[in-house]
Amino acid sequence: MDPLLLGAIVAIATILVLFSGVSVAIGLLIVSASFLLIFDGPRSLELMPELLFGKLDNFALLSIPMFIIMGASIASTRAGADLYEALERWLTRVPGGLVVSNLGACALFAAMSGSSPATCAAIGKMGIPEMRKRGYPDGVAAGSIAAGGTLGILIPPSVTMIVYGIATETSIGRLFLAGVIPGLLLVGLFMVWSLYSTWKSGNAARLSAGSYTWAQRFEILPRVLPFLLIILGVLYAMYGGIATPSETAAVGALLCLMIAMIIYKLWNPKDLWLVLRDSTKESVMILFIIAAAGVFSYMLSSLFITQSIAEWIGTLDVNRWVLMGVVNVFLLIAGFFLPPVAVILMAAPILLPIIDAAGFDPIWFAVVLTINMEIGLISPPVGLNLYVINGIAPDISLKTILTGSLPFVACMVLAIVLLCLFPGLATWLPNVIMGVAV
């Protein structure tokens, strides 16, 4: 059978299996085993255990559970509420300052936790009721938190970037650095839109209501600064050549647990058990998907699907930016239905040869891919962040939340356009700090 036709059949089969409701990892294994059995015979299945466990034989994978524990220990405390309160006290006099402070809190909490749903839940529980009480429209209140939560997979340290680095054998340190400026760019775009929408409402005076003394502003800082110092310390240790990403993740996880116990009194063994239990569940889920994706990648390569697609793309006489536009549409659609980790692990083996052949930087592409995944987090039908916000504020309809998120989706699309026009937004910082990649 022609490999391109076979590839189309594999894609359709994968979509049908995943839509059946089975977990992503099991679905990938079912598809891989079925096609290997049909086209390579029963002996090919003997390799599956070796492929499955061989994919997990990577020291860098240790950073995933460590960063997840780091985020879970923060999410289990009042750190999100304290971040929100600190920024509110400092920005309360700015017209629209409350929604700006919410976005700032989302950015900082996302950097600490690396989790989009956790960011939405932690900041939204306090931010949404307060914004509604101050007179912000429901759509702006809910949409800003839903969009701000997506920053968790872009701003370092990001588990999604770690997964991309492992899947594509790309430097995780460079990927983290590549996400910094685009992450700040997105925060800036979100804030500009929020300020504009506040001004447009004609209610700026009431929306900037609130007053805090300087003493009240400074007294909240000691509860926030330790976590921020840990993030800076982790990044410094990684880029200062002091430790590897896995080692810094382990130290960061330990320090976050200690701060959660000391500052937020997380002494109850049941609470600590919940942090470790939830972290273990999420880590196992991600690692299982990585292992299954390794088998799936082997199946695609064994049946010459990956090579044939890359070769076919190379024969097309189209502008490389047209090609990038098609790739972005594909990623956008995939992000509507699948979690970011699954999209990266499934798409990377196919897309990376195409990206390399077209002359695009894989580090730059990682940022573009991640922003596409962010759009998927606030877009139906899956749109995980939309449902998290609906759970926090059930009296706000999903339609209102989605409508409020759309301007922020436009900001993300604008960010992708800016990255295409100015690739240095993603590549400059890694090149300056770690040197130009050879």
From TrEMBL:
Pfam families: DctM. The keyword Membrane applies. GO terms for molecular function: transmembrane transporter activity. GO terms for cellular component: plasma membrane. It comes from the Bacteria. It is a multi-pass membrane protein. Residues 14-425 form the TRAP C4-dicarboxylate transport system permease DctM subunit domain. The chain crosses the membrane at residues 6-39, 59-79, 99-123, 175-199, 220-242, 248-267, 287-309, 321-351, 363-389, 401-425. Keywords: Cell inner membrane, Cell membrane, Membrane, Transmembrane, Transmembrane helix, Transport. It is found in: Cell inner membrane. InterPro entries: DctM (IPR010656), TRAP_DctM (IPR004681). NCBIfam families: dctM (TIGR00786). Part of the tripartite ATP-independent periplasmic (TRAP) transport system. The complex comprises the extracytoplasmic solute receptor protein and the two transmembrane proteins. Belongs to the TRAP transporter large permease family. This is TRAP transporter large permease protein.
